[in-house]
Amino acid sequence: MGFVVTLLLMIVCAAVQSTWPAWLRVHSQTPHLTLAAVICLGLGTGGASGLTAGFLGALLWGSISSATLGQLFVSHMGLGFFAGSLRGRVFADRVLVAMLLVGIGVLVASLVELLLAPPPSPQPWMWQALVRALYSAAVAAPIYLLVRSLRRFYPEPETL
C-alpha cells in the first residue's frame, strides 16, 4: 500500500508543479514540489521509501520537464535516502526541520544541476535557485503534514 500512496503523491506533485499558475509564481519561479515530496516522504517514512520516492519523483518530473534525467536521479534519490536516514533522530519529526531540509535540498539539487547541466549565465541562475529554495521550503509544510498523516500506510522498518 505504501508504494501506491507514494506513486499517487508523486503524480499529484509533478502535475501541480507543471501546471503552477503564473499568478502564484515568485520572481517567475515555481516551488519544486516533487523534490519537497521526496524529502518529506524520506523524512517521514525512512530511507528505502525516500529512495523509492526519489526514483519516482525524478522519473515523473523528468518525463514532463526539460531537465536532464541523470541529474534528477542523482539529486532526488540521494536526497530522499539522506532524509530517510534522519528518521527517528532528534527533531526529525518537526515541520520546521522538514522545511529546512527541503530548502537545503533544493539548493543541493540546483548545485547538481549546475555541475551536470550548467546554465549559459550563472548570475541569474543563483538568484533563481535561492528563490526556488525559499519558495519550496515554504510549501513543504503542508506536504510534510500530509505525509505524517499518511504514515499508517507505510510499514514500519524491521529492527534487529
Return the average pLDDT rounded to an integer: 88
Q: Helical residue percent?
A: over 70%
Percent strand: under 5%
Distance between the termini: 24 Å
Main sheet summary? none
What is the string of SSEs from the N terminus onward?
HHHHHH
| Shape, principal axes of CA atoms | globular
Unreliable sequence segments: none
Helical/strand content category? mainly alpha
Number of strands: 0
Walk me through this protein's architecture:
The chain has 160 residues and is mainly α. The protein has one domain (2-20, 29-152). It contains six helices and no strands. The protein has helices at residues 2-18, 33-45, 47-64, 69-85, 95-116, 122-149. Helix 2 (33-45) crosses helix 5.
Topology diagram in text:
Layout: H1 2-18, H2 33-45, H3 47-64, H4 69-85, H5 95-116, H6 122-149
Question: What are the main properties of this structure?
Answer:
mainly alpha; globular
Brief overview, please?
The protein is mostly helical.
